[in-house]
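We modelled the chain as a single entity of 45 amino acids. Its sequence is:
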Amino acid sequence: MYDLPDERGHFGPYGGVFVAETLSQALEELRAAYAVARNDPQFEA
């Protein structure tokens, strides 16, 4: 049985994320931009 990621997309007790290392920086930038945008009433998902 496989564990599903938590609400932040992390797996297991050590918080690993299954993403290619070359995409890590872009993923962090996307996470930061979403954190700002989700509180903006003009933002539509």
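As a brief sanity check on the tokenised model: Residues 24-37 form the longest helix (14 residues). The chain has one domain: 1-45.
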